């Protein structure tokens, strides 16, 4: 199915561990974003990309890195996991910068213990 | 800075009835985009409806419609003939039109329960 694919769907990490959340889209969308969803806080932007090789920070970038080597893939790296990074992470893509909406992946539930 | 407020953490509606979810926002800009997203238990965010601020006409998508009051900075979602499958979290979102701005500002969500 066409869309945004996120892996894994669930992950438990120990404090200090690192990991990469994968995101891939097959719609040839230029714009991709990572959001985190926390109870009572809606979704907040972590990092975004407007095309291969171009990334920028959102409102909560600390502790996360991204890169965009291809149009299709936009991985999110947690450098040294902390309990405060326990959250649900969503990847989203758009051809229009979100003017007509973003297509979201199904999310990754991450727990840091 | 722009903010989006959803003041109803939870709402309930009887199947086949109509329900309205509220959303207000704060902005000093005259042109922007507004969205409603649905998040069912599967977790995936699904676009329900969008509104362009410069358009006076309220957007409609089948059983979903909005009441966009620009002066009041209000953007409510009306769901008619509610169905069990409408049960979900609903998020209101705002996007500026400024070039180089791509992020959404989301509200905190309203959980909708549909009673059989």
* Radius of gyration of chain A using CA atoms only: 13 Å
Approximate strand percentage of chain B: over 45%
- State which percent range the strand residues of chain A make up: over 45%
Helical percentage of chain A: under 10%
Description of the structure:
With about 110 residues, chain A is an all-beta fold. Helices cover about 0% and strands about 50% of the residues of chain A. Chain A has strands spanning about 5, 10-15, 20-25, 30-35, 45-50, 55, 65, 75-80, 85-95, 105, 110. With about 120 residues, chain B is mainly β. Chain B is built from no helices and twelve strands. In chain B, the strands form three sheets. In chain B, strands 2, 5, 6, 10, 11 and 12 form a six-stranded mixed sheet that branches. Chain B starts with a strand and ends with a strand. At the A-B interface, strand 5 and strand 9 of A face strand 5 and strand 6 of B.
Defining key terms:
heterodimer, A: 113 residues, mainly beta, 7-stranded mixed sheet, 4-stranded antiparallel sheet, 50% strand, B: 116 residues
How is the topology of this model organized?
The complex is a heterodimer of chains A (113) and B (116).
Chain A: E1 4-7, E2 10-13, E3 19-25, E4 31-37, E5 43-51, E6 54-57, E7 64-66, E8 76-78, E9 87-94, E10 103-104, E11 108-112
Parallel strand pairs in A: 2-11
Antiparallel strand pairs in A: 1-3, 3-8, 4-5, 4-9, 5-6, 7-8, 9-10, 9-11
Chain B: E1 3-5, E2 10-14, E3 19-21, E4 24-26, E5 32-39, E6 46-52, E7 60-61, E8 64-69, E9 74-79, E10 88-96, E11 105-106, E12 110-115
Parallel strand pairs in B: 2-12
Antiparallel strand pairs in B: 1-4, 3-9, 5-6, 5-10, 7-8, 8-9, 10-11, 10-12
